[in-house]
Amino acid sequence: MSPRLTAEARAALRDAGLSRRDFVKRSGALVVAFSTARVASDLGLVQGVVSAQRLDGAGSGNLDAWIAIGADGRVTAYTGKCELGQGLYTAQTQLVAEELCVPVERVTLIQCDTALTPDQGTTSGAQSHPTNFNHANLALAAATAREALVSLAAGRLAVPADRLTAAEGQVRLADGSRQISYEELIGGRRFNLQVSRTAARKPAREWTVLGQPVPRLDIPAMATGTFEYVQNVRVPGMLHGRVVRPPALGATLVSVDESSVQGLPGLVQVVVRKNFVGVVAEKPWQAEQAARRLKTAWAAGTTLPDQATFYQHLRSQTATRDSLSVDSGDVDAALKSAARVVRATYLHPYQMHASIGTACAVADVQKDKATVWSATQAVYPLRNTMAMVLGLPPESVRIMFRMGPGCYGVNGADAVSYDAALMAQAVGRPVRVQLARQDEMAWENYGPAFAVDQRAGVDGAGTIIAWDHEGWSLSLGGRPGLNAPGNVVTGRLAGFEPAGVAPRSPAPPPSGAYANASNTVPSYVSGCIGGACGGTGTVRSERVLSHLVESPFFTGPLRSPARLQNTFAHECFLDEVAAAVRADPIEYRLRHVRDPRLREVLKRAAVQAGWDARPSPRPAIRPNGIARGRGAACVLYEGDNGYCALVAEVEVDQESGVVLVRRCVAAIDCGPVSNPDGLRNQVEGGLIHGMSRALREEVTWAGDRVTSIDWQTYRPWFVGEPVPVIDTIVINRPDGEVMGAGETSITVAAAAIGNAIFDATGARIRQLPFAPERVKAALDSRNR
Amino acid sequence: MSVFTLTVNGRRHTVDVDPATPLLYVLADDLNLHGPKFGCGLGQCGACTVLVNGEATRSCSVAVQSAAAGEIVTLEGLGSPQQPHPIQQAFISEQAMQCGYCISGVMLTAKALLDRNPNATDAEIQQALSTVLCRCGAHIRMLRAIDRYARGLREVPQP
Questions:
Q1: What pLDDT sits at residue A164?
Q2: Pairwise CB contact (< 8 Å): A358 & B40
């Protein structure tokens, strides 16, 4: 029996006389007992007798699909939102503990399993908190359960419900004279209730668990090497697979010479499906050897555009999908009437998720059913596309989430799930696949490159009167969603088409409600559509036009997708306009921002940073030596999902062009804070990640293939390299709606750093990354 | 295939594997240890780090045959969730990780250095970690946790 089963689970299986595969079919008590014991053991928690009641699994209307109370009073909660390293497991546990009035230790959370948990779609960084933490889903289910327990107690104790309160797993009379425990009320039985849309959430001012810096429940297991990542999943009879990707993008398979690996030790099978090639062996090392030795012939791939002239190539495409986010119709006239027009172009490279561990999955595919252990962000959508890949009905596929390394978006988790499943289907035994570093980095869904033209007209007083934005970006594939396995490499190799770009030009006029999900619209315009203005700024003459073209590489959401690229262009440009009119960058932002919460984060960050109000660049810059400067940037993430302002202080070595960020002061407002330390950890991580992307990260290619394929050729910021002091100001709004937190600080990092470089040196660098050669070139041209 | 007897976390294990198999694969697959993890297979990131005779060693880049004679310690050999080692406790106290996948590299590299030299300077610690990668950006908390552990070491009277 596999050592990954806990003793309890093993005993339960033995008693039931079931094989491991048989029991997953059952949705009864055994599954619940098994899962909770497993999760508890993974987390290093004390294992109690877990709730043992039947459960339907999916279904968000049914309270029993969310909350179960065991005979021992333990609470098991089911969520479709997964831990990705962002602390969501702990925060959701706090949420359940708070609403149900039980200690955190009494809650076990089961996350993201198509046989057990409600369908909550995808867990994507910024949306993960709002979807469970506002008045819906898990929060509402827990509140419904509390109200139901109080109501049951009222009946049992024969007192009116309004004289009762829930606390510490009991319902009590207000005077403390009588109480009844949850287990006495319902332990081991179903609620048989629908989740109530009117159940009353506990007001934030009454919180005792939520809102506290509860330490992460999973960190002790991670720190001691007992946590089970998807990379650690082992099932009985499991084999190991390795993929053989094409040598170049777009190459198609001509032939596979199986004799080249014949007789290799441990080799089980070479698996081919259209352009997908993999090898399966008894041991991972054997699979790796076989993959290296296997001779394959491929027809030539696509020629890639020359990287040196890539941005011109991007801008010259004619098959574009055009969109207007806002268009007041008077921008050209306003620019013509302006006292002065400032213009600039910003360039952002392709960047990659580049997770620290390569993607991994385990799949067990039988004739009529499949089980896949995956670090996907989207278990239910993956169930659908997995069914398409395997030719099975979705109901016959079970996807079980197991955490992987931090993903930051669509890394390789979905692709490798298909890899494992295709090989498992071919060999009829469970197969584990972990990608080689190069196979992940050359083929993942990159965050796309951007080119953005900005024009602003200012009046005689230096105030912006018109803003014109025109951006170009690229797309190919993306999240597989419910029906597009071809959106990631394996699905495409296996014969499914990726989502492309449907050209549409010119763009139709903006319609419907104003939305700024990709932060395409700068914070300084009014965002008016049909007379309704949803933007955060004051500039009335506005036009935001975007062109999307087909990408030569797969693309997909990468932490702050498009929001970061657009914000880099907006926030650096605002700084340029401020410099052109000799205004202080913070004061100039405030002059054009009307949203009070965006104003507040800006002011709080500036005060904390000791901002000296003056125009940039700083006076009396010397052309040599170390130059120091400060820069600011701010955003309302996705137009409605978290406020953040940042002041960054940098040092620029003007001889080498090396930039070091010395201090960051970030102010964040994401509504009521679920876990302040978790939030700080996210803000800090976002800033370091953002700094790494701003200073270093860029996908490179040559000829027909990607050349950034390891940590030498795609070099992020290592742990021992100089890091800034980070000062995080958390603005808690207990009565507000929860907003996203995990992607706000990264969104403003590159812009604030770029503005600080300008402040320090007078050199405006409009292309990322701020690599030493690029910085040095900008400094040299300044000196000329 | 060859038979090797390895001492891992104080226990002896016998495995029959290709002598060229990376130590990591033996630890992770034959012995089912969760501490060392595959990050790059190139010795560039540190996620596979283990201690071999007290030295931080990248187990993805060492063949089992050349490491088999040493005393091998992985994260799980230091302590448990219930009784963490002081350096593990320092990382827990500082909440010094996000996804935690890189933690073998960060923790064991620092431990190897500080056990050899409890008075290592910040610059020396940073130098040791300059080839260790964390992608979640928990760098600052990690350095704080290492500092906490180092201060604890210095407070213990040296023999």
A1: 97
A2: yes
Q: Which residues of B are less than 8 Å from A222 in CB distance?
A: 97, 100, 103
pLDDT at residue A606 is higher than 60: yes
- Indicate the residue of A222, A354, A692 with minimum beta-carbon distance to B103: A222
- Which residues are paired to A255 by β-bridges? A297
> Do B112 and B51 contact (CB within 8 A), yes or no?
yes
In whole angstroms, what separates CA A356 from the centre of its chain? 15
Distances (CA, A) of A272 to A219, A301, A390, A548, A726: 40, 19, 14, 34, 50
Q: Which residue from A208, A195, A137 is spatially nearest to A166, judged by alpha carbons?
A: A208
B1-24 pLDDT tens trace: 899 999 999 999 999 999 999 999
Topology of A232-301+355-441 in CATH? Aldehyde Oxidoreductase; domain 4 (3.30.365)
B123 part of contact set with chain A, CB < 8 Å: no
Is-contact A68 A79, C-beta < 8 A? Answer: no
- Cβ–Cβ gap A44/B80 under 8 Å: yes
Per CB-CB distance under 8 Å, the chain A contacts of B39 are: 356-358, 405, 437
Q: Are B139 and A688 in contact (CB < 8 Å)?
A: yes
- pLDDT single digits (tens) B80-102: 999 999 999 999 999 999 999 99
| Correct CATH for A7-219 of 3.30.365.10, 3.50.50.60, 3.40.50.1820, 3.40.50.300 | 3.30.365.10
Give the residue on A whose Cα is nearest the Cα of B34: A225
* B121/A contact by beta carbon, under 8 A: no
pLDDT in tens, A765-774: 999 999 999 9
**Which residues 6+ apart lie within 8 Å of A740 measured at CB?**
A125, A126, A127, A128, A129, A130, A637, A638, A641, A642, A670
Given the candidates 3.40.50.720, 3.30.365.10, 3.20.20.210, 3.40.50.150, the CATH classification of the domain at A317-350+448-783 is 3.30.365.10
B65 in A contact zone (CB under 8 Å): no
Does A436 contact B41 at a Cβ distance shorter than 8 Å? yes
CB of B124 within 8 Å of any CB in chain A?
A: no
Lookup: tokens for B126: 């940073």
Give the best residue of B135, B141, B143, B144 to mutate against chain A (max A CB count within 10 A): B135
* pTM, two decimal places: 0.93
Rounded CA gap, B154 and A192, in Å? 59
Which residues on chain A are in Cβ contact (under 8 Å) with B114?
Answer: none
Delineate the domains of chain B, giving CATH numbers in brackets: 2-77 (3.10.20.30), 78-155 (1.10.150.120)
Nearest-Cα distance to chain A for B145, in Å, is 12
pLDDT of residue A783: 62
pLDDT confidence of residue A174: 87
Mean pLDDT (whole number) for A311-335 = 97
How confident is the model over A458-482, as a mean pLDDT?
97
